[in-house]
């Protein structure tokens, strides 16, 4: 079923690009390259005020008193607001995306370092920041819970005493799979391997931090909010519910966004503070975080402490996988995941293998750290799931003395088994794993690499080869199974073709850098034959786009991409009827050829889509029952997720003197079904692989025992640059999704999901001569050094 075909032309002059899929330069880039992007911080409104937030310096404390008088008297200050004041309006707490509540401004206690305590509104940013220093807060410092492993200890201090009847730090329990069946396969297995793994807390750290400009007009009662959000429609409805305003009185505008990576899915207290400030002052108010605020207070990612167990026969047939997870959700459960999936899509932890039984038991706890959890290109926690399965498969290979590529090839789900229902109930739509794996091995020169490694080992040099194979589940809904706070995960889309044959497509998803203005124009172009240059993509403004759930979990192509293709087909169907009138033949006699309808058997007689658009709006008669205009709208509810897959191979060298890891080569073969724009896909993969190097080798949000965040600046929280990454070697196979109208699957998170285990597997492989079987991320020189000396430091 795998076919590899692609139009490889690169159109340097996009006007020459006739229609459809293929490499095409991005329509948004002339704007970005000239510095003409328009971000939230570029919004300047007459009389605009500036808001700054006072944050807690400690992780856990009771607020004894707050004195704002000096701040109020500070030059340029217009208002100082505390939690107590918000409480009078019943606005001190807000709902989170996970049916928990979170303090907008702390009233009773602070529960993590960096939590919002008060805000100042002033004439400029500097006056607002200066006045923060004058607010006097008296804290009664409490013991913090920093290590999730201690959260449920009987003597652990209670963090969420705001919740009725709560007596401990338990957040939720979740399980999936069949415990007894898994027990049974483990009991009869020849080999059982188990391994403790930590996927540390990391942060998406987008280039643009979070922020908002709120402008409430007291006369017409309309709130305009420019905000850094990946989900403008969902945010608008939540504001409507909280504020008791109808949606049409709230306009959420998400303009150009400088990277989201899941960091811009949650609703943050800062957005709500900006809205309150605009209502209180009667003026537009801007709030923009600085880098430290972003790193310490906004949605982190991961923080899963996992035990993985794998059972197999002596000859390497995997029978079962079992895992126990302790999930650290921070002080408030602000995870952005579909309601029925508190652990996101972690349930796909059985990976790409045809096994007999699986079971997962998870406990989530509250700790005195910032909330978050689902972010950083994670496909709703598939990062954690793939890391778990791909690490323990490598541990098993080690135990069996088997090559890790051979072990994977031996256990793959076979092409004829799709659609394949996993032992935890996920229905993988399509896949053909072996060709993808073989292509990666061929590109890497796998056998040759193993020979090189053997020679180097004999000389005492440390070289490692790591493999990871992943299957993701992206494109949430369907709406019957998936919703965010009751909002079903389906996407609207509208297409209007104007009289001159130019078109506008309106999306409910919102790009943060993924190139939607280009690829969605290409999808529509492929279906109706109007060149992409003539198709304008509108998104990110709730007043001008249809309702839909937004961009995350790589759902834009699987859901809105399908909507765009189907809405274009709907327009094409109408165009066919109009064409039949123009050509005076029945619709059955018309053949569609990109951009025109021709009379079958008489190719000289045809009308282009542009001719039809003019007729649709023009003076002549239209066929019986056909209204004027050429436009359509739909709401697409996906029947299933799409399941992209990929094979990654990483080659590392380790300096035995300094324990520094160098990623020498990285081969990534991705299969995302039908490829719309291969250049954009490559960009997505390059970015994700770079993130993977960061997570595997450098990045970690750590805390000291008092709960001080040790990664609060980019001096401490290291992110990779071009110096730390190799020239990526990418390849692809194409296994279309059978249920998606154009066969496309998502790709935006694949590389972040697949690369960390490949890199860790490579490092552990390099360290085999030292008897190392596992070491936790980030594999910094000191951690690698410790591993070489047989000492593991607590992560
Ligand atoms: N694409 C394609 N052919 C396919 C699949 C995708 O050409 N078969 C193109 C799409 O048309 C789109 C891009 O690749 O232009 C990514 O598509 P998709 O996989 O649908 O992902 P989304 O557009 O929904 O993007 C979300 C995803 C997520 S969840 C995170 S996190 C992440 C990621 O995208 N954040 C990003 N990549 C990012 N890239 C940038 N530059 N900035 C971010 O914030
Ligand atoms: Cu998990 S990060 Mo993306 O789904 O926005």
Describe this entry's structure for a reader.
- The protein is an alpha+beta fold.
- The chain has 18 helices and 34 strands.
- The protein starts with 28 loop residues before the first helix and ends in a 7-residue tail after the last helix.
- The chain binds pterin cytosine dinucleotide (MCN) and CU(I)-S-MO(IV)(=O)OH cluster.
- CU(I)-S-MO(IV)(=O)OH cluster binds at residues 230, 260-262, 265, 374-378, 380, 552-553, 749.
- Keywords: Molybdenum, Oxidoreductase.
Per the CATH scheme, the topology name of the largest domain is Aldehyde Oxidoreductase, domain 4
Q: Spell out which ligands are present.
A: pterin cytosine dinucleotide, CU(I)-S-MO(IV)(=O)OH cluster
Query: Roughly what is the average pLDDT, rounded to an integer?
Result: 96
Globular, elongated, flat, extended or rod-shaped: what is the shape?
globular
Structural class: alpha+beta
Number of strands: 34
Q: What percent of the residues sit in helical stretches (DSSP H or I)?
A: 25-40%
CATH first level of the largest domain: Alpha Beta
Rounded Rg = 27 Å
Beta percentage is 15-25%
Number of contiguous helices: 18
Spatial ordering of strands, largest sheet: 3-7-1-14-11-12-13
Low-confidence stretches: 1-13
